[in-house]
Amino acid sequence: MKLLAVAIAAVLAAIVRIMFFTPIELLQGAAQKIYYIHVPAILSAYLALGIVALMSIVYLWLHDERADRLAESAGEVALLFTTVTLSTGPIWAKPIWGTWWTWDARLTLTLFLWFVTAAYLVLRGAIDDPIMRGRYSAVLAVLAVLLIPFIHLSVYLFRTLHPMPIVLKPDRPSLPVEMLTTFLLSLGAFLVFCVALIRARYRLALLRDATAVP
Amino acid sequence: MTPQPITPDTTSYYHAAYLVAGALYLGYVLSLWWRARRLRK
Amino acid sequence: MVPNAPGFLAASWIVARKDLAIELRTRSAFLSVVMFALLGLVIFFFAWDPTAVSSLDLAPGVLWVTFTFAGLLGLHRSFGIELEDRAIDALLVAPIERESIYAGKAIANAIFVSAVLVIAVPALALFYNLPLGRAIVALGVVAVLAAIGLVAIGTLFSAMAVNTRMAELLLPMLSLPFFVPIVLSSAQASTRLLANRPFGEVLPWLKILVGFDIVFAVACTVAFPHTLEE
Amino acid sequence: MTAPPPAPAPVVHATLLAKRFGTRVAVAGVDLTLNAGECLALFGPNGAGKTTLLRLVAGLLRPSAGSVQVRGVDVRRDAHARSSVGLISHHSMLYAPLTALENVEFTARLYGLADPRGAARRALESMRVVDRAAVPVRTLSRGLQQRVSIARAIVHDPTLVLLDEPYSGLDEAGAAALTSLLQALRGRGATLVVVTHNVSEGLALATHAAIMTGGRFARFEQRDARAFDAQRYAAEYRELVRHGA
């Protein structure tokens, strides 16, 4: 539990820094501060999804229960972070781009990742036999990894044919040093938080398997 | 004198986003704790 | 007298022939999927005000959405028949590669889905008064590419879903995210083909479709043995 | 100086074979060696692990520990090595919409037989069910389906036949057909493993007899000159099961 406590403290510290010690950006106003939690959320989601994919390959190869349990834990945490991304994203897009949702390539990819992660968890929920559950979810995870480039490609091609009226693309804003350090601190805090959550969820899975009546 | 861009007041969106994110994170941590407690029983 | 066991392709074709024989024997599955597809085309037609949106632009999208769901219906029973009396065990004991079981069923499903298309595409051309000649060729080519991708994914997930509790719901939920690139590329390619745009505009979409088919036909074949009981 | 030709690998060779499903141990360390022409009668209460053992030998399940080989080869790895194995299980393994002939012919094709239709017809004849060959299996009674399932399992004249309670559901004629079929197979040097609850039927064919409880051989013996004494064996079997070895 110690790591989780440290992680929560780090996140709270980052939030305090964002709220009180980081200047308001002139162009977008206070809404720009959503950036400091929106981007770390999607990056944490990518980290968690990377663990799911990697552990799935390890499980198919070694049939090691721990890999399956880690994939399950990272999958649930990935759903959390993609959900946060998809909720903070539109709230930030509304004042900046004028619409709640745009089929921006990155947002669409995040939406797609949300669907696949949800499918992954529902699939796990629908199977009782631990071995079959491990194998099926691992196969889905590996195939999902293969699909990401196709989604990215087709959505990107689709978007370049119908360029969305992007008023102000906060793509790679050159942040002044003050904001950049806030962003990096926040990113670090959320990544630690992500790892801590996965570990906590892993212990929960261990507890569940231990108490699972044979 | 270049026209000074007036900074739009978007604090309501800013607060909304942080509340939503906070609720989701808190909700998940609580669910972890609650599920662990139920399993331990 | 050790008989020479059939190779990968021969075994796949034997499995495919058996599936098709079952399909011919129980025509009800095929007919209901065709009905579902035709009904989909009709219902979609009334979903839009024909004066506002020209049916030419509408047709490809309507075909691909209806075709995707009709295909899913057809694919679901594919592995059901194997599990009824554990006929899958006989296949696993037979001297054939595990992958040829998947390949055989995928071939049978591809033929099943193509047969649905052979009825659905002309019906679409009729209902949405598309230029018949060009429409059939354009939609036909793209349809085959889309069918391969759909069947590659659908057959594998059917093999998994059929062993779980809520199989009917699980198959669409697992497959649909994977169908996004297929539907998107097929709709874009066929719209341009129908509108007689230069082929250069159609090519990138066809490339995505072909790439998808190759990657997932191989990946699903390799992944299939992992879905079997250990 | 040529070394004497190495003894042919045993038809079935299992060492410390075990299988766990999650925390449940179905087979807990079984050693078994069977050579050509031998027949093992395997008895035991429900849930003793008999079916799991059979599925392990057939290559349907991956061992959790130990190993099992057919003629020195792991049938899970080598598809070709499976061409000599026949399996009869509780499930008919048939396709209900297809006819008996179509079902058995399909299996014959899977084994690469030269004349699949002829082989299918002969197999159905040997189980005296060829008159119902052109009717969808769905319409047959359980007993007739069992006969078709047996015919399907031996259409390729396997030299290792694994039978899981093959007599269940068979009437007099069916049982007689099965017994003469098994004797014919053994006559051709096949190796059999018969899981059954019928002591006399099982012992009639057996060269080895085993009682399995709790995933282990509680008793295993080879028949010496005299045939097995069915009555005495049955009594000891009931005794052993009641005590829960």
Secondary-structure topology with pairs:
The complex is a heterotetramer of chains A (214), B (41), C (230) and D (245).
Chain A: H1 2-21, H2 35-62, H3 65-97, H4 105-125, H5 130-161, H6 177-211
Chain B: H1 11-40
Chain C: H1 8-25, H2 27-47, H3 55-84, H4 87-93, H5 98-127, H6 132-161, H7 167-194, H8 199-223
What profile does the largest beta sheet of chain C have?
Answer: none
Helix/strand order of chain C, N-terminal first: HHHHHHHH
The mean pLDDT of chain C is 89
Which pair has the most extensive contact?
Answer: C-D, 29 and 37 residues
Q: What value does the Rg of chain D take, in angstroms?
A: 18 Å
Computed over alpha carbons, the radius of gyration of chain C is 19 Å
State the helicity of chain C in percent bands.
over 70%
Q: How many helices of chain D?
A: 7
Beta-strand proportion of chain D? 15-25%
Distance between the termini of chain C: 30 Å
What is the helix/strand order of chain D? Answer: EEEHEEHHHEHEHEEH
The overall strand count of chain D is 9
- What's the pLDDT, averaged over the residues of chain D? 89
Number of strand segments of chain C = 0
Summing up helix and strand content along with how strands pair, one would put the structural category of chain D as: alpha/beta
The helicity of chain D comes to 25-40%
Strand content of chain C: under 5%
Can you characterise this structure?
The complex is a heterotetramer of chains A (214), B (41), C (230) and D (245). Chain A is mostly helical and 214 residues long. Chain A has six helices and no strands. The relative contact order of chain A is 0.19. With 41 residues, chain B is an all-alpha fold. The longest helix of chain B has 30 residues, at 11-40. The mean pLDDT of chain B is 87. Chain C is mostly helical. Chain C has one domain. Chain C contains eight helices and no strands. Chain C has helices at 8-25, 27-47, 55-84, 87-93, 98-127, 132-161, 167-194, 199-223. In chain C, helix 3 runs antiparallel to helix 7 (167-194), helix 5 packs antiparallel against helix 6 and helix 6 packs antiparallel against helix 7. By secondary structure, chain D is α/β, with parallel strands linked by helices. Chain D has a domain at 9-76 and 205-245: P-loop containing nucleotide triphosphate hydrolases (Rossmann fold). Chain D contains seven helices and nine strands, in the order βββαββαααβαβαββα. In chain D, the strands form two sheets. A six-stranded mixed β-sheet of chain D has the order 5-6-7-3-8-9, sandwiched between helices. In chain D, strand 8 and strand 9 (216-222) form a beta hairpin. Chain C binds chain D through residues 1-6, 11, 14, 18, 21-22, 25-26, 81, 84-87, 89-97, 229-230, and chain D through 58-62, 79-87, 89, 91-98, 102, 106-107, 109-114, 136, 152-153, 156-157.
